[in-house]
Amino acid sequence: MSREFVYEARDLVDAAVFHKNVLATCRCGHSAILESMDLWAWFSKRGWDDRLGQVSKHLRCMKCFQADRPKRKPRIELVRKEATVTLPHADDREFKRVVARRR
Question: Which of 8, 14, 19, 70 is the most exposed place for a label (fewest CB within 10 A)?
């Protein structure tokens, strides 16, 4: 039986709770899948807003960066696929504390 949730994810914490990862697709066609819990830790460490509408402001396509193209916001969507980009792993205990505070 698959797990389908009634509510949609509002931020990276919700995405991680729903076991979804973030697919960022650049206009150049390059895409990357990021682990939502690790991305949450990255944003939390820097004090950035982790709402899904704000996430794309802080992401940048590496192919465009290396080609010295201007920074453009990627398109963000939530997927149930394995991550293709690794970030430093989030502390599970801290994440569980954040989830417990929301309940």
Answer: 70
